[in-house]
Known about the structure:
It is a single chain. The protein has about 190 residues and is mainly β. The chain is built from one helix and 17 strands. The strands form two sheets. Strands 2, 3, 6, 7, 10, 11, 12, 13, 14, 15, 16 and 17 form a twelve-stranded antiparallel β-sheet that branches. Strands 1-4-5-8-9 form a five-stranded antiparallel β-sheet, with no helix packed on it. A hairpin with a 4-residue loop joins strand 12 (about 100-110) and strand 13 (about 115-125). The radius of gyration is 19 Å and the shape is elongated.
Amino acid sequence: MEALLRLDGYVPVYYNADSADYRSADQTLRLRGNSRVERDGRVITAKDSLVYQDRRDFVTAYGEPQATDVEGEPISGDIFYYNIASGRATARGARTKITENATWYVSGDVTRERTDRIYASNSTFTSDDRADPAYYFRADRIMIIRTRLLIGRPAYLYFKNVPVMALPFIVQDLETGRRSGFLIPQFEIN
């Protein structure tokens, strides 16, 4: 095993689960129970199961899956899909936060590719970290370019589930320093 780890280009994958089932006919590995897979610093965990399909280079995670990349915040959701070949990850019912100049909490269906872009559909985003935020934006489509921009279109501003304003799009600059865009509200308990 130590000789394999020293080989150039060899990348180990570490699996951990309550049980494992491998079907050679379709080259599918199913990890059942509390499952964890780690490769190159990327970690996927799930409480129900992780399914790896070797022929398709595809991973599906069920039961409160969470994916943690080498950089950035973890993404959790209801179901998680990951295409190993393209590096595209999609989480249905996802929840994550983006911390660039301010902290934005994004929930919805989130897709991330190997680039620095994150896409979300039918999603909400807010800087209020409470379970029931005082305000949030809802957008049909959101694109986040890490450390640069958050773009949502069309965007609707809600205060406690009451729609207040509709915008054709919203652009929030995520870079540090003086920038244009919405002033980010700060909440505190007195």
